[in-house]
C-alpha cells in the first residue's frame, strides 16, 4: 500500500485510533470522553463527529471526573482496554492533571488529548493561554510532564506518525503502563497533510508476558525451599496479569497464606481457605499475624506502598522477594527481584518447587478473624443508634451477591472495606494509590461500563460526594445503573480521627469543629434526584438492605443516603486489627495529648526498616 490520503491532523488521529485493536478483536481505545472548547472543538470535535460510531464520543460534566471514569474503565478491564479524554486548553487541560497523577500512581492506561496553544503563535496570547515570561515553548500542558508516562506536544501534523504509536506502546506495556498526554496544538489539529495509507492499516497490540531470568528464578526457588513460614502479598499485578487462578493454585499446592493489598484484594475470593485478608495499616488480625511471623515475604505485583508494609514495620525480619514486571518495583526495600509477569512467574515457580509445602498457615486464626468481622458488621441492636461504617458495610455485604463489586477511593471507607468486605473473586475495586476524593461516582460509572455483567456498589462519604458528583447526571443520561451508598457523618470523619490520634485537637474537619456560623443541612436525596438518579434516604440498616435489593430493578443509578456516626473507626473493637502508619507528629507542643502522641511516634519509628 503506497498511496496517500489527505486528512487534517485531527482526522488522522481519530482514524488511526479507531483501528488499534486488542488480540480479542476489539478497539484498544474504546472511545473518547470530550468536553469541547476553543482549543479542540473545531479540529478534534469535527474529526470525532465525522468518524461517528467507529470511535464513539461521550460527553462528560467535568474534565477531571470524566477522566476518572476512563481510568476506572481501564482498571475494570484489567488494563486490556482503555479510553481517551480530550479537553480544550487552559483550565480544561489542567483539570485533568489530578486524574493523570491518579492513573500514573496506579499504573493505569488513559490517553489525554489536551488542546494546546497555536504552534504558529500568530494569536499569542490566545484565550486561556498561560504565558511563561522566560520560555516561549511552555504552556499549561507542561503540568502533565511529571504525571504521565509519555508526553508529546504535536506542533506539526506528521509528528503523529511517531507520537501515536509511542503512546500506544506505553499504554500496552505491562512494565511501563500508565497515562499518556498528547498536547495537540489547536491550529495543527486543523492542518491538512498527505498521510500514508499504510498508517491506517489495523494493528493488533499484544500485551507481553515477560519470562523470568533463569538465575533470578533459581535464587527465588532456593529461598522459598528454605523458608519455614513464607507469606504471599498479592498486589494489583496479579489481577492485571490475569493470574488469579494461578495464585490460588500455587498457594494451595504449597500451603502458603495469602495477604492482600488494596489493589490486589479479590485476586482470591475471601472464601479461599488461604486468603487471610488485608495486610498492613488497614489489615486484619489474621493477615498481620501471618506477616509478623513470616521468614519470607513473596510480593507479587505490588509496589509495597506504606499501607501494605505498615510503614516498613510489619515484616522487618523477613526476607523479601518481589515478583514484578517493573524492575523499579521489584527492587524496592532491598528485596530479591524476580522481574517477570506474575502468571508466568507463578507457573515456573510452581513447577520448580514440586512437592514443597510450607505448613505455616493458621486456619483457626483465619476463622476467628472472619467470625469477628461478622459480629463487628452486624446490625445495631439499639433502634435509635446511628450506625457505624462497619455496620453499613455489613448491611451491603448481606444484600450482595457473588456478582457484586464494592468500589471506593478515599476517606474512611477504603480502609474499612479492605478490612471488612468479603468479596468473591473480582469483587473489589479500590483507587487507593492516589486516594483521590471525588473518584467514587465517576469511577462507578467507568467500572460499570467496563463490567456491565457485575453489580457495582459505590461507597462514598458526604465529603467526597461534595467534591465531585456531576457524572451522576452522565450515568443517568447514558442509562448506566449502579448503586451509591452515601454515608453522611457531617464532615471528614476519617481525617478527624487521624488528627486526634496524632495528638491534635478536633479542628476544621467535622462541620461542628469548623469556622462556620451555621452547620449545613444538605439534602443529598434532593440533590441526587435533581440529576435524575433514583434517590432515597434509608431509615436504618434494615431499610438500607431493602433499598439495595430494590435498586437492582432500575436502569439508572440509585443513591441511598444513610446517616452514620463518625466514631468509632471501622476497626475499633476488632482485636489486633490494623498496624502502625507513619504520619509525622509535631516534636514540640503544649498539650499532654500531643506529647504522648509524639512519644508513641518515636517508639514505633524505631522499628522501621531503613533498607531501600
Automatic annotation (TrEMBL):
Residues 217-349 form the Thiamine pyrophosphate enzyme central domain. Residues 411-562 form the Thiamine pyrophosphate enzyme TPP-binding domain. GO terms for cellular component: acetolactate synthase complex. It holds the Pfam family TPP_enzyme_M. PROSITE patterns: TPP_ENZYMES. GO terms for biological process: inositol catabolic process; isoleucine biosynthetic process; L-valine biosynthetic process. Transmembrane segments: none annotated. Keywords: Hydrolase, Thiamine pyrophosphate, Transferase. GO terms for molecular function: acetolactate synthase activity; flavin adenine dinucleotide binding; hydrolase activity, acting on acid carbon-carbon bonds, in ketonic substances; magnesium ion binding; thiamine pyrophosphate binding. It comes from the Bacteria. The keyword Hydrolase applies. InterPro entries: DHS-like_NAD/FAD-binding_dom, Myo_inos_IolD, THDP-binding, Thiamin_PyroP_enz_cen_dom, Thiamin_PyroP_enz_TPP-bd_dom, TPP-bd_CS, TPP_enz, TPP_enzyme_TPP-bd. Residues 60-128 form the Thiamine pyrophosphate enzyme N-terminal TPP-binding domain. Belongs to the TPP enzyme family. This is 3D-(3,5/4)-trihydroxycyclohexane-1,2-dione hydrolase. It comes from Paracoccus lutimaris.
